[in-house]
Design brief:
The complex is a heterodimer of chains A (291) and B (85). Chain A contains 12 helices and 4 strands. Chain A is mainly α and 291 residues long. In chain A, helix 1 crosses helix 2 and helix 1 packs across helix 7. The radius of gyration of chain B is 12 Å and the shape is globular. The chains are: A mainly alpha (291), B alpha+beta (85). At the A-B interface, loops of A face helix 1 and helix 2 of B.
Chain lengths: 291, 85
């Protein structure tokens, strides 16, 4: 069993990761209200609550933005998920006073596996789990007339460490411009339980698996390198600041291999009304040429 | 410096300012009507200007060429995004 890691390194120690946590929290709460309630007219939030830090922070933000009674958190375990994750999810949800419901996705996932994916490896099973969870969340969104809220952070978005059109599919994402270490920082401001902040992040598919083992680099170090790389610093400049070349290579390779994943599907453009190329309308557009 | 390529409508001037700010370089950057981006950058050291050029080439869009001339001058106090010219 992995030892719990105390997240001692503070992002504010690094100028590239410095944030004002309380200000960020206030802005994200307003962001959720503005995008969901004002622009889209949706007053309920639908969130998949895993027991990990990202969904914990998202849920706490949503409870503030929508009010606890309008937040519906779904705990979506697969048969390989750990009981500890469920316990952690409840430890986040209970003090917030939001609605929770457990929907076991094992039948969905195993149905898919049995229907022609018997040879699926861990990556494929992980993808099927993620897409099954997205299916449940969007179905619940239709049932409850709520808006699914995404939980993906900037580090995993840059590393491509998510399932395309699954975890990244909700139309609203408050954490997408925060590095993982910054999510930990605002978690403290939001009063997320220490157990959830300090445990090693994991996809929770195989016991003992952690994100950081998968990357070959810690989030603390990865975020410091990543933030420099995406700010335009050449590799040599990053190394000159005391980072190991092998660590810098891990980060650059991750980003370079996942640009495709950060885009919507590429549509063949044939006209001057091509959607999102020429035909551009904001989500709260109310004008019409055919009243 | 004059930057040619796909450098307008892609957030290029913000990238240039971000890079200049990291290096403590002052000056300004603007879009040109010929679809290029021009900038003027002031630094105490030639190395920082070399670094800026390297960082600019890694910007959004696609840089096909970057040409520059260097001279002495009085630096402004910050790096700003200027009006199109």
């Amino acid at each position: 069993m992995p030892l719990p890691v105390v997240r001692a390194a503070k992002p504010e120690a690094d100028p590239f990761l410095k944030i004002q946590p309380q200000l960020v929290v206030d802005w994200l709460v307003e962001f959720l209200r503005n995008e969901c309630i004002r622009k889209r007219g949706m007053t309920k939030a639908i969130i998949g609550l895993s027991g990990g830090i990202d969904s914990a922070v998202t849920t706490a933000l949503a409870a503030r933005a929508f009010g606890p009674d309008n937040v519906h958190a779904f705990l979506l375990p697969y048969r390989l998920s750990s009981q500890a994750s469920l316990d952690d999810a409840y430890s986040v949800a209970k003090p917030l006073g939001i609605h929770t419901k457990v929907i076991d996705i094992s039948a969905m996932v195993d149905g898919c596996l049995n229907a022609g994916a018997q040879d699926a490896d861990g990556t494929r099973i992980g993808n099927i789990c993620a897409r099954s969870r997205a299916t449940v969340l969007f179905d619940q969104s239709a049932a409850l007339k709520g808006l699914p809220i995404g939980t993906g952070n900037k580090t995993e978005r840059f590393f491509g460490y998510y399932t395309w059109h699954a975890d990244d599919s909700p139309p609203i994402n408050p954490l997408g411009d925060l590095y993982k270490t910054q999510v930990w920082e605002i978690a403290r401001t939001l009063g997320i339980p220490d157990q959830v902040i300090n445990k090693p992040p994991t996809a929770d598919l195989v016991e003992g698996q952690t994100d950081e083992d998968d990357f070959g680099i810690s989030y603390d170090l990865g975020d410091r390198i990543l933030s420099r790389h995406v700010s335009g610093q050449p590799k040599e400049m990053i190394i000159r600041q005391g980072f190991q070349e092998s660590d810098v290579d891990i980060v650059i390779k991750r980003v370079a291999g996942s640009h495709w994943k950060r885009h919507m599907p590429t549509v063949a453009m044939l006209s001057d009304t091509s959607i999102n190329d020429y035909y551009l309308r904001p989500v709260d557009y109310r004008g019409t040429t055919n009243p | 410096m004059k930057v040619q390529g796909i450098v307008q409508g892609v957030g290029f001037r913000w990238h240039v300012k971000n890079c200049a700010d990291q290096l403590g370089i002052t000056g300004s950057v603007w879009n040109c009507h010929d679809r290029t981006v021009e900038l003027i950058a002031f630094s105490e050291t030639e190395e920082d200007l070399d670094a800026l050029a390297e960082m600019i080439k890694r910007g959004p869009g696609r840089v096909s060429s970057l040409t520059e001339t260097r001279s002495e001058g009085r630096p402004p106090t910050e790096f700003e995004i200027g009006l199109s010219r």
